[in-house]
Amino acid sequence: MIVLLILLFAGIILFEVPGLVKKKMWRELAAFLAYLLIGMALSIPQVLGVKLPNPTKAIEALIKPISELLK
Amino acid sequence: MLEQGKIDSKQAIMLMLSTILPTAILTVPAVTAKSARQDSWMSIMIATTVGLLIARLVVVLGLRFPGKTLFEYAEEILGKVPGKIVGLLYIWLFFLYIGSGVIREYGVFMVTAIMPDTPIIVFHIVGVAVVAYMVRNGLEVLSRFNQLTIPTTGLLAIVFILSTKDMKLARLLPVFDAGPLPIVKGSVAPAMWLGEIVTFAMIIPYLIRPREAHRVATLSILLCSFFLTMSILEALLIFGPNVTGHWIFPAFNAVRVVSIANFLERLESVIMVIFMLGGFVKLGVFYYAAVLGSAQWLGLKDYRPLVLPVGVILVALSIPLWGENIVEVLHFIGQVYAPFALIVLEVGIPLLLLIVSLTKGKGGESDA
Amino acid sequence: MLKKITVFILLVLLTGFLVGCWSREEITQIAIILGTGVDWTADGRIRLTVQIAKPGSFAGGAEGGGKGREPASWAVSAEGKSIEEAERYLAMRVPRDIYWGHCITLVIGEEMAKKGTRIVTSFFLRDREPRETMWVMVAKGEAKDVLETHSNLEKTSAQAAGLLERMKTGYSVQLREFAEMLASKGVQPVVTRVEVKEAGVTPGSEQEKKSPAHKQVEITGVGVFKEDKLIGWLDAEKTRGLMWLKGEPMEGVITVPSPGEPDKEVSILIRRGKTKIVPKYDGKSLRFDVKIDMEGDMVEQQSLEDLAKPEKIKFLESGMAEEIKRRCNLALKKAQKEYAVDIFGFGNAFHRKYKKEWRELKDRWDDVFRQAEVNITVAARVRVIGLSTKRADVPEK
């Protein structure tokens, strides 16, 4: 699973980066890498079975009075 | 400008229809029928009013800043830092959130109703891969694809007519049984869905005739609420309020009941087609909005490099964000995310933007 | 060129991926269930009986001629603590994937129905394969026996039972309607009753002996439920009354005495009708005014008189109204006095009109219903009298 995921990321990098470097779009390249890093940070732990904190729970706590009303 | 394409008003209406409807017909009837029961159609009416107001709000804002999307005028209105924060909220809490929600609903539906043995992640990845291709090709391709697939929505009307045989009007009586409160409660979810018209703020600048934006938004909302009312009524008239509220996908069950002369039956594939094709477009719109918004937020010259990374993020978010199992998914959608998005992202912030822009006198006179 | 090659490779790869999917079920690998029955065994377990189609004997049955007919189905049962568990035990006997999507009938055994049908319905409503349109029936006796019979006319007894239901020869209930009745406080469920009875013979050729009288499924009324438990039956005659009161398919035949010769009968086939229930409640006493409008065709007369006269038709109509009212009252009395359950949906009618009062009464509705006064008025009309005016087989005087 993890190997497949890394292959996928490698594929995405190979697909996008050369074009960006050729066109010298450094800002875009930085943004691309930043988003890809976020993607990795979100997906790799899941594949390894690490649980991430769930932001929906935070919204749940925030919106609790209203959710109670909706029950 | 980041997006070179332009779409005409007809395409915009169809695009908005697909932005709202596909998941709405599947998820909303159950949530609404659970609290408003046989008066669900009244909930939809309330939701339609709210939706029309949100649509008006979004278009008025959009027309005050011609050629600019939500992300650009938010900065202009609120100033650089608060504007960026608002942008961030929309990217992460609206477009990516709903986008991953659409993926999850799609996966859950496939696994629950059609292919129970396939791991859900397969549907997620395949779905996003297809949509990523569409988004990379830009708004025009997205709306052309949508033009191709939107006629399937008409099947909803045909199915409705076919199932009249099994309907009883008495199932809608007595009217106003439980009083106003359950009806209002039941209107939150459909209002949130119709409020997804906020995405229109990303598309107004790319209309060929922006002046028609008001008409586009209003018509989209009315059409959506028409189809939504139809699918909710179909389920209610066939199963009655007690049973409808306890299906997970009432529209799906309702279609299964249709049987004309022992051969025109098993029409659930109709709902599946609408949901899958429409679901792709819906995901496409939110995906596109997230990518375009991010590019504008970061001040990029091209949004395409972001398409694949955002796709990865969408798939990665689809599982943890919406809970471990279907019970959590339904709870998060109906009781947690719907009220939050409705209050904060669909009404609160646009209203704030409008008020500030009016008081600061920013933006050109809206011609509406 | 490179692009073309890439596209070609992609196409080949994709076709490979797209045709197969995880949950594919080939027709030769699935066991199509046509009917299923659930019994409660003496030692408190659930016995699931299924009738499985044998696709081979469905195809080209007509040409088979000389070979003689092979039975088109196979009935097999297994026991378990729950339906799904029993199904898993079945899976050990059935060498194919069990497929519920085409199940036509769900037969609930008498003991099971007395024990409670909610134990049964959950699986069929929750699982994605069984459809909410399958016909629900209660067997007098064991459901197993019903499924193990064979139909002479249809390929399988499950199909035969399904067709009987579809023709609405009795009061027919789909699973979704059963669920709706179970979920409502304003009506108690009634479900078609089926029995295994001798039904005619298959005439044999001279060499063969006449085959023995054949046992077949027959619809013989309805089972009456209180919530999800079976508490009694209505026979076919009272079932008509029940259907007319419920306003369900208003068909059936009634016989009324001939105007001039009261000892001879005239048959009237009911074509259509409408039932309207109007509750009247003043806080203490509860009354239901039931108005039934019926329309029928005169199809047979035993008497010799000329019935094709307006005043005779009027007489027939009043006789018809009388008979319909009598039958409705029979069903009503049985439900009110003996079973004390509202199987007619009077509660729902009451709810529609008095929604505030309903909230107080709904939890003791059956009690309220038992004491309610019901006035039935019937307006009957004869529209058509067949192809002859006077009898064609009686000499002129």
Structure description:
The complex is a heterotrimer of chains A (71), B (368) and C (397). By secondary structure, chain A is mostly helical. Chain A has four helices and no strands. Chain A has one domain. In chain A, helix 1 (2-22) packs antiparallel against helix 2. The model of chain A has no long low-confidence stretch (mean pLDDT 85). In chain B, helix 8 (180-194) crosses helix 13 (326-360) and helix 10 (250-257) runs antiparallel to helix 11 (268-298). Chain B has helices at 9-36, 40-64, 70-78, 80-114, 120-136, 139-149, 154-162, 180-194, 213-244, 250-257, 268-298, 307-321, 326-360, and strands spanning 259-260, 264-265. Chain B has 13 helices and two strands. Chain B has one domain (9-360): Amino acid/polyamine transporter I. The mean pLDDT of chain B is 88. Mean pLDDT of chain C is 85; it is low at 61-68. Chain C has helices at residues 2-19, 55-58, 83-91, 110-115, 118-126, 143-148, 157-166, 175-183, 236-246, 310-339, 346-353, 355-361, 365-371; strands at 30-40, 46-53, 73-80, 97-99, 105-108, 135-139, 173-174, 190-198, 215-226, 229-234, 252-257, 265-281, 286-301, 373-384. Chain C is built from 13 helices and 14 strands. Helix content of chain C is 34%, strand content 30%. In chain C, helix 5 (118-126) crosses helix 8, helix 9 packs across helix 10 and helix 11 (346-353) crosses helix 12. In chain C, strand 12 (265-281) and strand 13 form a beta hairpin. Chain C is an alpha/beta fold and 397 residues long. The chains are: A mainly alpha (71), B mainly alpha (368), C alpha/beta (397).
Low-confidence stretches of chain B: none
- Number of E strands of chain C: 14
Spell out the helices and strands of chain C N to C.
HEEHEHEEHHEHHEHEEEHEEEHHHHE
Distance between the termini of chain C: 101 Å
Secondary structure: helix percent of chain C: 25-40%
Output the CATH class name of chain B.
Mainly Alpha
Largest sheet of chain C: 10 strands, mixed
Q: Specify the CATH homologous superfamily of chain B.
A: Amino acid/polyamine transporter I
